[in-house]
DNA sequence: CATGAATGAGATTTCATTCAT
DNA sequence: GATGAATGAAATCTCATTCAT
């Protein structure tokens, strides 16, 4: 391995780790395997990262940052809701791996990591900046609506799409089309504000 | 029949494993820890189970069986939708641990386990037995509706409830009440059939 | 390896560890090497001991216990001082390994282990039970005398004897004889009480 | 000439290493830690030193050189024994770290390093140059006296002083005063020649 | 002179699993 | 049914050392 560009090595590690974590879960993914897949020495991972946890943290941190800084396609002009949603879902599909990890880690009872909620927070408050003006009771209802009938179904769709399709023997296009139809009818058409 | 804390040893193992798996995930939970928490010898676990995997399988199997055989409160007479839902959610809350495990394992890309979908299938087909009579296109739309706007949000609510409440600093009763309100409006009131 | 008598295995580990620690120091002695020398599997050490530190602790603990419970030959009747001392030194020579470890570990500035002082305490107070009756100023002088001109020289003799002999090209018997002569003249003949 | 905190880099490395070695022992002190404490890059250490061992060797070499070249305060005129001893001990106290390392390394059975004895040799022969004139039997007795009842207790005092004081809950001044008293009575007043 | 990046070897420790009793 | 003892494999992480820049 050329001792040239530490930045590239670090990127490589993060990419490989993201993929592997999503495939087998954080705990079942070993540093050994990551190093082999990245084509580098095990110890090199510890040159770039304090420990295994910090690889995960950096993945989460990068994800949170990206989500906070992006322009929401929902707010883009000139597109109808269906097309906007399709664009958003395609965007998230590219992030399927890190979303899988995020969901898995959030579910563990013992975790103190709240990256999932941080992302949800920024997504939801991005969308409706007037949210803060609402009365508390309404605000919490709105939050529940956004989180449990919008955010969660969409992330789960991205993550479970393939298995859903395989189990129920459906074809690819109909699955995404159907999902967009039902999420519009159930979530977007029933918005409170 | 030797018992530990009133449970048969095998049941004790299953209970402890279920709790630990949900806390730290299947991979981070060791047979050693399970045996210590159950107050038995490590080797005893291997008397009752072929290996670690089969402890998980038995948990999943039991869960699937229970879900298939239960009477859906939704179909019970005399209760309005809100109360029925509340009953159903309370039932699922008691199964929070196994549901957590189920969700975590389903998300792993590499898993071939489809217990989550088996349960979804039986839940959804239980509810609407006439589903099979529908035309294919309608059927798939219905399936997407049930799975992604009903089943998934409800399971995720059960599993994420506490963390959601803590992160957004909400009080317990309002969280469940709000969830029931929004799931009714988004899922139940928008049923296709 | 026969899975028969865990007690023997533990003893074997302690013996091997004691020897190796004294040869190369605690930190340079690896669990791997210990296991190989003991003819057992590395993991077996962790069945009998919590971790590497606890192997050291158990060695120290055993040493402290032995020292506290032994009858001091110095108090034995019928022997003159020279013979008593010779007996005592021969007793300590058999414990050369653990004494080496004890001294090395005591010297480390960062150590919080005070096994050396615990042993010194019990040795010194054993010898002169009337010590407690002394006035404080005398007591401390007595302590300094016992510790720095008796205990420390003797332990260091046991530990450095061979190297001292080799460096100065002396023969074995003259070294021990000379040491006994000088320790009697300097320490025992100058006792305060 | 690049300096760190006013020291040349090499000196800085030696100072940091000396301190760390004395705190945790040679083996537990890593080049990594030394470089961090010195505020330099790990590789820089390998520019100034062949390897880790040679850092230790240079520390020992410097110490030996210093000890060989110093004027012994014991021989200074105008001071009584007590004051001379106090001066000597204060001199050695400043070398506490390197003395700790020296002692620890000397105790290891496997070590072939004899720096401790080299220093002892030059100290003892410095003091009494007419030593060589003595008959062999007397010489060896004298050597044993100097080494085991003078040199060793003094070095051990310097190294164990703090721990001795803490364990027996003594105050600083009384400890050094008492030590000087007892070493005079036991060692200096019992000189053979 | 000094550094960032890398590595092979090996450290401690834990894993799932086995087996004689 | 249950256990103490053991193990091979693999986990995470650290080590001393190297080298291109």
Write up what this structure looks like.
Four copies of one chain form a homotetramer. With 193 residues, chain A is an all-alpha fold. The first copy, chain A, has helices at residues 6-24, 31-38, 42-48, 52-69, 81-93, 96-107, 115-127, 136-167, 172-186. The model of chain A has no long low-confidence stretch (mean pLDDT 90). At the C-D interface, α1, α6, α8 and α9 of C face α1, α6, α8 and α9 of D. The structure holds a DNA duplex (21 and 21 nucleotides).
Q: Can you tag this structure with a few keywords?
A:
homotetramer, mainly alpha, 2 domains, DNA-binding, Arc Repressor Mutant, subunit A, 193 residues
Number of helices, where a helix is a run of at least 4 consecutive DSSP H or I residues of chain A: 9
What share of the residues of chain A lie within helices?
over 70%
Q: Quote the average pLDDT of chain A.
A: 90
Largest interface: A-B, 50 and 50 residues
Oligomeric category? homotetramer
Total beta strands of chain A: 0
Order of helical and strand elements of chain A: HHHHHHHHH
Strand-residue fraction of chain A? under 5%
- Ends distance of chain A: 56 Å
What characteristic shape of chain A results from the CA principal axes? Answer: globular
Low-confidence stretches of chain A: none
Main beta-sheet strand count, sense and barrel state of chain A: none
As for the number of domains of chain A, it is: 2
Which structural category fits the helices and strands of chain A? mainly alpha
Estimated radius of gyration of chain A: 19 Å
